[in-house]
Structures are given as structure tokens and as C-alpha cells.
Design brief:
Length: 152
């Protein structure tokens, strides 16, 4: 009944390693993602910059559609502006499903978007079978759709 209290599930038998049974956050919203170069941020012309999220407890579920042209950034490509920083646990990384149109990256490779700890941005990589991740250089124009979940 009191604002800001949350829902306590302590009547449930917790699993080993449980750290909390209190659900005290629910939020839905939008955000404005952008593309940047890691060496030089640059600017672009955006056709679409759509970001939507739902946060339930520590889990942030999101989807992004971004389309740009004439970008002037340089270096590795970043997708910035997620609504919450990821948790700050060393070695805790997240990988997301992505689709792209007109994005340039290695032939016969898979696009990989990763989020490192304590970040509000995604890093673009490509990977071929049996090979290490390779960074993806910022592209002057492309469309990208990303969806996923990370923890704060």
C-alpha cells in the first residue's frame, strides 16, 4: 500500500545463492540511441532513432531501431544512449541479437553487439567460425535493429 515499497516474495522458498526477494522497480519508457565512432565521435543524419525499454527489477529489456546516413565518426562503431548503465561486475558482459542493412563488416562473419560492465553503450564486433572477435569500423550509413536484456 505504501509508495516505493515494492513486492516482497519472501513467502517463496529461495534458491541457493538468492540475494533478494523484493521486486521494487517497474518502468517503461523510450530513449534516443545514437551511433558514434570510438576514435572520433562524429555526427550523422538520422532517419530513425527509436529506443524502447521495460525495466523489471534489475532486468532491462530493450529494442532499438536506428538508421543513419552521412556519419563523420571514425574508429570502432558504438551504439550509445541505453537508459541505464549495466551492472559493474568485473567480467560481466552481455551479447545481443542484431540485424543490419547496408552495414559493412567482414564477409562470412556474424555481427556481434556486446555491452561491457558499467556501460550505456554497445560495441560492434564481427566473428567468423573459429576466429576471434574483430571490431567493426563505423559506417557512414546503415540500418540496425537490436534487442536484448541486460542487468543493472
Amino acid at each position: 500500500g505504501t509508495s516505493g515499497e515494492g513486492v516482497n516474495f519472501n513467502a517463496n522458498t529461495p534458491a541457493a545463492g538468492m540475494t533478494s526477494q523484493l521486486l521494487n522497480w517497474y518502468e517503461e519508457g523510450t530513449f534516443t540511441p545514437d551511433i558514434a565512432g570510438q576514435s572520433t565521435i562524429g555526427v550523422g543524419t538520422y532517419n530513425y532513432q527509436v529506443g524502447r525499454y521495460t525495466r523489471v527489477g534489475r532486468a532491462v529489456h530493450f529494442t532499438i531501431y536506428i538508421s543513419w546516413t552521412a556519419h563523420t565518426g571514425t574508429g570502432n562503431m558504438l551504439l550509445r544512449g541505453l537508459p541505464f548503465a549495466s551492472n559493474n561486475t568485473a567480467g560481466q558482459y552481455y551479447q545481443f541479437a542484431a540485424a543490419s542493412d547496408s552495414l559493412t563488416y567482414g564477409a562470412n562473419t556474424t555481427l556481434q553487439l556486446l555491452m561491457f560492465n558499467n556501460a550505456t553503450q554497445l560495441n560492434f564486433y564481427s566473428q567468423s567460425s573459429g576466429a576471434a572477435l574483430a571490431t567493426v569500423a563505423i559506417d557512414t550509413a546503415a540500418d540496425v535493429i537490436v534487442t536484448g536484456t541486460y542487468f543493472v
